[in-house]
Amino acid sequence: MRAIVLSEPGPVENLEIRELPRPVPGPGQVRIRIEAFGINRSELHLRLGYAEGAKLPVVPGIEAVGTVDAAPGTDLEPGQQVATLMGGMGRTFDGGYAEYTVVPRAQVIPFRSALPWATIGSVPETLQTAYGSLTIGLDLRAGQTLLIRGGTSALGYATAALARETGATVLATTRRPERLDDLARHGVDHPILDDGAIAARVRELAGGGVDAALELVGTPTLPDTLAATRVHGTVCFAGMLSNQWTIPDFYPTGYLPSGVRLTGYSGDAGSLPAGVLQNALDRIEAGELSLGPVTVYPFDRIRDVHRDIEENRVSGKVVVLTGQ
């Protein structure tokens, strides 16, 4: 099979397409014939050497979609459509940047859909994180206001769509003026140009601060996001678009505004109920839901994929098709 291998951290040239033996599943494991895989920021972090516990060389990729090729000792049958994500994929064992992968049955989600594989491939990990951030991280309710810091990321678009369906008013940021219209077209009530200090503008729009905020940029903007949130409001830290995720010499009393709650969210395959995935796919197919723009690349342009993401050339989700 063809696979993309990262042998050591470094530039995009360290991603190499190789011929590897097709992996053999053991009892309770599932071999998936991969049709498409989404690209995630964590894979950029892996390539740059910021992935704790990663075992190199490895086939990267924390998610993939395709069909069951073999599943000894499980309830799955060859040919079933499935998604897989997280659980050590692309870090401690070979992941989704390949034509086949083997994963434990516990991290496989079956579904049925007539959507193109490029569309299906854009959904699982983004939906899992958006859904979990809103329900577990923020407990967002109808009538509340939500700020998304990093709105033109794949996760930003998806979270905005789900939040609007919840009945929330959505504010979302972008650093690029030309992307403000994109946010508006995808249901954001108040697109905001982010100059690094937006708290005053947000508090003006939200009448004293938002009820909830999703921090996707990272620690550089987190203090300003906290300042944009009302007393008893909640900020959920769930992304690191800036590649910065630690706070030196963290002093909670001096860092956190009085009464503003700070949470975090990081889920896995078990955090995405099969019914939630199926419902999202059905509604996308019916034209009732959009999780944002999708850019598709062929398999052999994986270096271009990483380069474009690192240089912020794409908006929304990036998907790679293995058959191209």
Automatic annotation (TrEMBL):
Residues in coiled coil: none
UniProt cross-references to InterPro entries, sorted A to Z: ADH-like_C (IPR013149), ADH-like_N (IPR013154), ER (IPR020843), GroES-like_sf (IPR011032), NAD(P)-bd_dom_sf (IPR036291)
Domain Enoyl reductase (ER): 10-320
Keyword RNA-binding carried by entry: no
SUPFAM superfamilies tied to this protein: GroES-like, NAD(P)-binding Rossmann-fold domains
Keywords, sorted A to Z: NADP, Oxidoreductase
PANTHER family named among the record's database cross-references: QUINONE OXIDOREDUCTASE PIG3 (PTHR48106:SF18), QUINONE OXIDOREDUCTASE PIG3-RELATED (PTHR48106)
Name the record gives this protein: Zinc-binding dehydrogenase
